[in-house]
Write a structure and sequence with these properties.
The complex is a heterodimer of chains A (about 450) and B (about 775). By secondary structure, chain A is α+β, with helices and mostly antiparallel strands. Helices cover about 35% and strands about 20% of the residues of chain A. Chain A has 17 helices and 20 strands. In chain A, strands 1, 2, 3, 4, 5 and 6 form a 6-stranded mixed β-sheet that branches. In chain A, a hairpin with a 2-residue loop joins strand 14 and strand 15. Chain B has 3 domains: about 150 residues, Aldehyde oxidase/xanthine dehydrogenase, molybdopterin binding domain (Aldehyde Oxidoreductase, domain 4, 2-Layer Sandwich); about 180 residues, Aldehyde oxidase/xanthine dehydrogenase, a/b hammerhead (Aldehyde Oxidoreductase, domain 3); about 325 residues, Aldehyde Oxidoreductase, domain 4, CATH 3.30.365. In chain B, strand 20, helix 14 and strand 21 form a beta-alpha-beta unit. Classes of the chains: A alpha+beta (about 450), B alpha+beta (about 775). Bound molecules: flavin-adenine dinucleotide and FE2/S2 (inorganic) cluster (FES) (2 copies).
Chain lengths: ~450, ~775
């Protein structure tokens, strides 16, 4: 395909196959080798660039999503003769050793400072969570960011309001009827009606691009659904929050309603990979990938969400628990799109939690993930207990025994401990079973004991 | 020496600006015209014979130019270890082989016009394997009935113990004193077995090699290597082409840590280029780096320590078993180092015995990795002394101070154990370890934390632990470095060194040394490193040698140049040489009334009379390997509910002689420390039953990220090493030695659980807690 985009402030025309990575376009086609490849799987951040004002890993971005985009690379910041103040800060603070991570680190730092011009240490760490560095031990990189922030670097970044420009493009002969970039749900559904069987949908592409790298056959036909405004909207309607399937994690956790009513969802979105990933990965992609290790399924199960699927023949709403049929399979029909989910606004008296225990704070695919939700009535007895776990079966699943045990009981320490034991007994993972059983139980206990403690503290006051 | 102008200052790294602006070129950034893409086919079996390999269909793929297998490539045996000549590692490796010895081993290589074509062809190569029984457990590797990995043809180029028919890749034994007496005198014996695991270097730049032909038809190899000169020598031998037709260039390197000392890609890349007279591009995927490149050798180390009730150590017996994996890269030297870098530290023990064996197994191949055996050895050593100190009711800090080697002292081990031959006697000329211990202890607030089981919230408990260690600085009487230099009319100097900057900052440090000698600012030094055509020889960046060894070569070279400058100045000023003062950028008489600037000196030398180029070269071989010393302290918190261990604070106090560039030295320590913590807590190779590494991506192989970083402090303790350039010793490796044992000791301090095996994952902690 042929299209135009803006690179480092200049308009350029690109000719590329639709799944070619932005990283290769930069390095090989345009000779901009500042952007590096450390893994090609979205895990290291060496390839990070800023696209439409957002930090993304260029190894995760296929050409099909580039028409009309604004991309900024390390070369667009400064030159050795005239370095950008941020680049200078890296040099002055000794934040550069081998430097292979540096371009990505600089871009990540810039994005961080564009969002938050006076980040504290913790925010800096989180902002750089998706960028690996093996040489420096990070400390000096933190200092470089602090220095640039102190010099007011963040304030100098012009706020960039990138309207989602349609971006014109031209397809080659053999791409016609294979490559689709619709701009409305209706358009998308009409295409799916005729080509649904062969089309693969692309949202944030963080799953697909990894799969392609690891040998998945190139799909026969592609449809980019990331430019459909309806699918990216988040809105409050009739006591439930509707989240469009193409909402990215960063949009989800920045949403005020999510922040006020859905702390579990917010946590899950924040724990999903690092910034580079959160700026791309979508809720719909996470659900439709149907990986047992995915974070969103247990959370949405515990929150009692519904999935909305639509085709030209209409919409259907199903309980989220019915979305998956097995390992990486869903009930979606080829002509359908997951348009989004609906989550009921939880009652005042409810508590919710999402825990994920992996071996590292960030970029971790859960080894134990647990979401919990309970409501407690005025007499202190438990209504609506919902607990779901990920990573421990072919799909995420609910802990029925635990729910049955808790329903209607008064929440006491004794019950909390018993609940923990029941939870341990209701999971049976294949790998490291002992550990994961124990941790599942401990987490359930922790959640319930926390609620009791909160109650006690209130009573004391 | 307080009047130093350049040395001891944290000047900017000379290459930092070009890196931070994305302009610096790493191997894969060099544009080549139509390079062939090279891609490897890897073995799916841990141990198998290739019965037949059919490439005919794959060759038909559009764009495929060649497919290499054992059938059409040279059979020369060599080692990938990238060491000096003759190598102390066995010759047990060929470019391709009939036999595959671990999952991920090379089977065939496709060279194609495009990466897509290469990938497509790879899938079409048909290989018929005859599976052989595999051995994964190093303990059983030397059993008579265990499957053998290598045949009779494999051999060791040096006269060292090597017996492939027993899977024995190396053996080292040393002892002094009387062990029987030592143990019979002991009141108590502490007998423990420690295990350290596999780890990947995880340099952010994957291994990469490019090659092309220059206009004179010479082969130019641009490669991410630590050892350009060893690469050239090895290529000439393996490919059987004249050494003079090869030029090896090391561009910017995206981290190495030992992993790029290995000569893995270069022979294949150069072979294809040479055969087809085409340029080639060979870049590994991250997965290949994990599974096909090198790892940290896993060790099983048994320590038997006899001691009196008052803590006097009467005997130390160490039995080390090192897993070399499928090939013997560094099999002997990492093993030797595990003894020679550890045993001298407690030089007052009179009865010592060390037996080390390296064995082959059908697992990924071990290699050089920052710390190089010392890291593995100190894991057991430091826990052993923590245990003994506790059992004899002593503070481990006092205990360590009582036993460690001091200024003016020596150890038998230095003399006995070298690299593939006897060692070199040496007396310690600088040791700041006491100060390291004291200042580190203060920073971690040792006495306010130790033995307190402080618990900030009910399920979390804190503890502190310490570990000490030493390393070396270059391999004495073996490693050689050289430098050459010439002066330019503007008073600048070209400095050419064989030394290899891997991102470590050696280009900067060497420039500082030259600038210091020549009384100029570092910008006046134009450094060029590691190009076999342009720079003089250097063994390369390993064994913590660059600052100490190459730095000395640069110092010598610059001193020669300085001498020539003075001689010329004496002619210009008509003042006797001895009466001249060498100042900053100028030479003057003693009263500073007449002077000549460096520019004028050079102009005079080049253009005026009896013209000559002010220039010099110098080489340096060290007669000893002065150890840097370090004390490292961890404060950790264990979550007794989830088993997670969190490092709260980590302090590293190092004596590295004079730090030529303190900020770079600190950066080395910080990087090594974080690598060490990450190794202690997360990093590991997880294998399936048939020997496949299951976690071959950053997704599953967790290295520390920014949010994981604890509060870290680095303390540089000044000392002065007379044999080093401006008093310097090495600093880059040692920081990896302490984290695992310091954390293990801290975990014990917190919850009374001893971990004899790395990494300290939550499941292990919970398992051990249950046992209490
Ligand atoms: C480095 C890294 C770290 C990660 N960490 C985590 C993590 O911590 N937790 C976690 O859960 N996941 C993680 N992931 C996985 C991944 O990022 C998520 O699953 C993500 O949410 C997928 O969304 P996407 O938009 O990128 O999916 P895409 O790759 O675009 O799509 C995934 C699949 O869903 C289908 N699909 C997408 N949208 C729709 C729709 N609206 N209707 C129907 N089908 C659709 C696509 O056709 C495709 O099959 C990680 C991935 C990477 C690369
Ligand atoms: S190359 Fe590692 S994230 Fe893109
Ligand atoms: S400086 Fe080498 S990876 Fe960061």
């Amino acid at each position: 395909m042929k299209f135009d985009m803006t690179l480092n402030g200049k308009n350029i025309s690109i000719e590329s196959s639709p799944l070619r990575r932005l990283l290769d376009i930069l390095r090989e086609d345009l000779g901009l080798t500042g952007t590096k490849e450390g893994c090609g799987e979205g895990e290291c951040g060496a390839c990070a660039v800023i696209m439409d004002g957002m930090l993304v890993n260029s190894c995760m971005v296929p050409a099909i999503q580039l028409p009309g985009k604004h991309v900024l690379t390390i070369e667009g910041l400064g030159s050795p003769e005239e370095p950008d103040p941020l680049q200078r800060a890296f040099v002055e603070e000794g934040a550069v050793q081998c430097g292979f991570c540096t371009p990505g680190m600089v871009m990540a730092s810039r994005f961080l400072l564009s969002q938050n011009n006076k980040p504290d240490k913790e925010q800096i760490r989180m902002g750089l969570a998706g960028n690996l560095c093996r040489c420096t031990g990070y400390e000096r990189i933190f200092r470089a960011v602090e220095r640039a922030a102190g010099e007011g670097y963040g304030e100098t970044i012009e706020p960039s309001f990138f309207l989602s420009t349609p971006g014109s493009f031209e397809l080659c002969e053999n791409e016609k009827n294979r490559i689709f970039i619709p701009h409305s749900t209706e358009e998308a559904l009409a295409i799916l009606k005729t080509h649904g069987e062969v089309i693969t949908l692309l949202a944030g592409t963080t799953d697909i691009m990894v799969q392609l790298k690891n040998g998945r056959k190139e799909p026969e036909a592609l449809m980019d659904i990331s430019r459909i405004p309806e699918l990216s909207s988040i809105s409050l309607e009739n006591d439930s929050l509707q989240i469009g399937s193409c909402s990215t994690y960063s949009r989800i956790y920045s949403n005020p309603v999510v922040q006020s009513h859905f702390p579990a969802l917010q946590t899950a979105a924040r724990l999903n990979g690092a910034i580079t990933l959160q700026n791309r990965a979508t809720l719909g992609g996470n659900l439709m990938t149907a990986s047992p290790a995915a974070d969103m399924p247990p959370v949405l199960m515990a929150l009692g969400a519904k999935a909305v699927l639509r085709s030209t023949s209409g919409s259907r709403e199903i309980s989220i628990t019915e979305l998956w049929t097995g390992y990486r399979t869903t009930v979606r029909l080829p002509e359908e799109i997951l348009v989004g989910i609906k989550v009921p606004i939880p009652s005042e008296n409810s508590r919710q939690i999402f825990y994920k225990r992996g071996s590292r704070s960030m970029l971790t695919i859960a080894r134990v993930s647990l979401a919990g939700y309970i409501e407690i009535d005025e007499n202190g007895s438990i209504l609506e207990p919902r607990f779901a776990v990920g990573t421990m079966g072919k799909t995420a699943f609910m802990l029925e025994d635990l729910q049955n045990f808790l329903r209607g009981r008064d929440l006491t320490e004794d019950i909390a401990i018993k609940a923990g034991n029941i939870a341990s007994g209701s999971v049976n993972p294949r790998k490291t079973p002992e550990y994961r059983k124990q941790v599942t139980g401990n987490l359930v206990k922790k959640f319930l004991l926390g609620i009791i403690e909160e109650r006690n503290q209130k009573e004391e006051q | 020496m307080s009047d130093l102008k350049n040395v001891g200052r944290s000047i900017r790294k000379v290459d930092a600006l070009s890196i931070a602006t994305g302009r610096a070129l790493y191997t894969d950034d060099f544009p080549l015209e139509n390079p062939l893409s090279l891609m490897l086919l890897h073995s799916p079996h841990a141990h198998a014979e290739i019965i037949a390999i059919n490439t005919s269909e794959a060759e038909l793929v559009d764009g495929v130019v060649d497919i290499l297998t054992y059938e059409n490539t040279p059979h020369t045996l060599y080692t990938t270890a990238g060491q000096g000549y003759p190598e102390p590692s066995p010759y047990d490796y060929r470019m391709f082989d009939r036999k595959v010895r671990f999952i991920g081993d090379r089977v065939a290589l496709v060279a194609a016009e495009t990466a897509e074509a290469a990938r497509k062809a790879l899938a079409m190569i048909q290989v018929k394997y005859g599976e052989l029984e595999a051995i994964f457990d190093p303990e059983g590797s030397m059993e008579p009935l265990a499957p053998k990995l290598h045949g009779e043809d494999a051999y060791a180029p040096l006269p060292v113990k090597y017996d492939p028919l027993r899977n024995l890749a190396a053996e080292v034994e040393l002892g002094f004193g009387d062990m029987a007496k030592g143990f019979s005198e002991a009141d108590l014996i502490e007998d423990n077995i420690y295990h350290t695991h596999f780890a990947s270097h995880c340099a952010m730049e994957p291994h990469a090699t490019k090659a092309y032909f220059d206009e004179k038809g010479r082969l130019v190899v641009i490669t991410s290597t630590q050892v350009p000169f060893h690469v050239r020598r090895t290529l000439a031998r393996v490919l059987d082409i004249p050494l003079r037709s090869i030029r090896v260039v090391k561009p910017r390197i995206g981290g190495a840590f030992g992993g790029k000392q290995e000569i893995i890609l270069e022979p294949m890349a150069a072979y294809v280029a040479w055969k087809h007279k085409r340029s080639v591009r060979f870049v590994l995927s991250r997965k290949e780096v994990f599974t096909f490149c090198r790892t940290r050798h896993p060790f099983r180390m048994r320590f038997r320590t006899g001691y009196l009730k008052d803590g006097t150590i009467t005997a130390m017996d160490v039995d080390a078993l090192m897993n070399s994996g499928a090939y013997g890269a560094h099999a002997l030297t990492v093993l030797s180092n595990s003894g020679s870098k550890m045993l001298p530290l407690f030089n007052k023990i009179e009865n010592v015995h060390f037996l080390g064996r390296t064995v082959y197994t059908n697992t990924p191949v071990g290699g050089a990795y920052r710390g190089y055996g010392a890291t593995q050895a100190y894991f057991g050593f430091n826990q052993q002394i923590d245990i003994i100190a506790r059992k004899t009711s002593q503070d481990i800090l006092d205990f360590a101070k009582k036993w460690h080697i001091r200024n003016g002292e020596t150890s038998e081990v230095f003399r006995i154990l070298g690299e593939g031959k006897e060692g070199v006697e040496q007396y310690i000329g600088s040791c700041g370890l006491d100060e390291c211990i004291d200042r580190g202890a203060e920073k971690i607030r040792w006495y306010e934390r130790r033995d307190l089981h402080f618990s900030p919230v009910p399920e979390k408990v804190r503890g502190v632990g310490m570990a000490i260690s030493m390393q070396g600085s270059a391999i004495p009487l073996i490693d050689m470095a050289s430098a050459s230099m010439k002066m330019n009319e503007d008073g600048s100097f070209n400095l050419h060194v064989g030394a290899t900057d891997l991102g470590t900052g050696s280009d900067t440090v060497l420039s500082q040394i030259a600038a210091e000698v020549l009384g100029v600012s570092p910008e006046k030094i134009i450094i060029l490193s590691s190009d076999t055509d342009l720079t003089p020889f250097d063994v390369g960046a390993y064994a913590s040698s660059t600052t100490y060894l190459s730095g000395k070569a640069v110092e010598k070279c610059a001193l020669n140049v300085r001498e020539q400058i003075l001689t010329t100045a004496s002619q210009i000023l008509e003042i006797p040489r001895d009466e001249l003062l060498y100042g900053e950028g100028r030479i003057s008489d003693r009263s500073r009334s007449t002077e000549v600037r460096l520019e004028e000196v050079c102009l005079h030398a080049l253009y005026t009379k009896d013209q000559y180029q002010i220039q010099s070269c110098a080489s340096h071989v060290a007669s000893e390997s002065p150890p840097p010393f370090m004390a490292q302290f961890a404060e950790i918190e264990v979550d007794t509910q989830t088993g997670e261990v969190k490092v709260i604070k980590f302090v590293s106090a190092v004596d590295c002689g004079r730090a030529i560039n303190p900020r770079l030295a600190e950066g080395q320590v910080e990087g090594a420390t974080i690598n060490g913590i990450s190794y202690a807590l997360h990093e590991n190779y997880i294998f399936s039953d048939n020997g496949r590494m299951m976690n071959d991506s950053f997704w599953d192989y967790k290295i520390f990220t920014a949010p994981d970083i604890p509060e870290i402090h680095t303390i540089i303790v000044d000392s002065e090493e007379k044999t080093g350039p401006y008093g310097a010793k090495s600093v880059s490796e040692i920081g990896l030695n302490g984290p695992a044992p310091a954390i293990a000791n801290a975990i014990y301090d917190a919850i009374g659980v001893r971990l004899f095996e790395t990494p300290f994952t939550p499941d292990k902690i919970l398992r051990e807690l249950k046992k209490l």
